[in-house]
């Protein structure tokens, strides 16, 4: 029996994971996983002190816009040229997490089919692989086996989970200010 789980992660530009959260069934939407993660709870709290407010995390449209989590403008709206440029630049920087996941899966190919019956052990194995991934990067080990991109997909789709309609006004203002710089 194979269990599918969602891995929510944040990484730096060098592909090193700074936050990982595994534990929700693979059928769960990213927004629901985020909302129930410690990171999601911290970022949506008014008194968040994880990092200064001039810093932020980039996410896709599945996540809620806030002053600490910047997301793209919605494509269903008619975008201004400034908004379109912002979305393009956001997308080009978000590709880093996809590369980190690709490197993780290429390095630990058994993650594609972990043969364990106990879900807690699967979560520990996934988290351990993320830690080992970071150790390898810190030792300049970028050796990995490329994965077949036709069979691997990074979930990056928009699904309305009720969470997407919540747009923080400070997040809107911060995103607009950043977009105006482009």
TrEMBL record:
InterPro entries: HARBI1-like (IPR045249), HARBI1_dom (IPR027806). Belongs to the HARBI1 family. GO terms for molecular function: hydrolase activity; metal ion binding; nuclease activity. One of its GO terms (cellular component) is nucleus. Its cofactor is a divalent metal cation. Pfam families: DDE_Tnp_4. Residues 3-134 form the DDE Tnp4 domain. It comes from Macrosiphum euphorbiae (potato aphid). Keywords: Hydrolase, Metal-binding, Nuclease, Nucleus. It is found in: Nucleus. This is DDE Tnp4 domain-containing protein.
